[in-house]
Specification:
Layout lengths: L5 E4 L4 E5 L13 E4 L10 H17 L16 H5 L8 H13 L8 E8 L2 E4 L11 E4 L5 E4 L6 E2 L3 H13 L3 E2 L7 E2 L2 E7 L1
Antiparallel strand pairs: 1-2, 2-3, 4-5, 4-8, 4-11, 6-7, 9-10
């Protein structure tokens, strides 16, 4: 019998969670099925994930909408691999940055600035300004009364090409908080926020 809960892909937009053993040695009753927009199996490539889940967000951003790409999961589940990737298998962020700049090149007037923040122990830190201990996040209302969050004191670096933007991201990644865990010896213990403002 399995001692851990397992999640399996069932079709293109369903996942099935099978319970493992509970703390008392008995079977947990938390079996569930979930429907989602798209479920990716372990055979999915970086290109598959980008094309299905991220490319539509990039298109909306280029039309003037806000967009977010969020990776969520337990330590060691592949979040960094999916988001950043490797030089051989680029993740969704390098692909998204390239697609956005490729589209901007056809426009006559545009600018891009990037920032890299870290949320760690409920504090926000600017990873591009290492000597600053903390920066504040402010909630502001837009013209329609909808809330948005801004960090006015964060460093914003101009980027004229994908390489500029990704160099800033990688600089921030080098400064993240990491700590040993049982599942990952250099696990990031923080949330990274990489922002492209067009």
């Amino acid at each position: 019998p399995r001692s851990e809960t397992c999640i399996f892909k069932e079709g293109p937009n369903h996942v099935h969670m099978l319970p493992g053993l509970n703390d008392l040695g008995g079977r947990s009753n938390n079996e569930a099925r979930y429907r989602c927009d798209h479920a990716f199996g372990q055979e999915a490539s970086q290109e598959d994930v980008y094309t299905e889940a991220v490319a539509p967000i990039c298109e909306s951003v280029l039309e003037g909408y806000n967009g977010a790409i969020i990776a969520y999961g337990q330590t060691g589940s592949g979040k960094t691999h999916t988001i950043i990737g490797t030089p051989e298998k680029r993740g969704v962020i390098p692909r998204a940055v390239e697609a956005i700049f490729a589209s901007l090149r056809s426009k006559s007037d545009w600018s891009v600035v990037v920032s890299v923040l870290e949320i760690y122990n409920e504090r926000t830190r600017d990873l591009l300004v290492p000597h600053v201990a903390q920066v504040d996040i402010h909630e502001v209302m837009d013209n329609h009364g909808l809330p948005s969050f801004h960090c006015p004191d964060a460093a914003k670096i101009a980027a004229r090409c994908p390489q500029d933007a990704l160099a800033v991201l990688y600089e921030g990644l080098e400064r993240r908080e990491t700590a040993y865990t049982d599942m990952n010896h250099s696990s990031s213990r923080s949330h990274l926020i990489f922002t492209l403002t067009i």
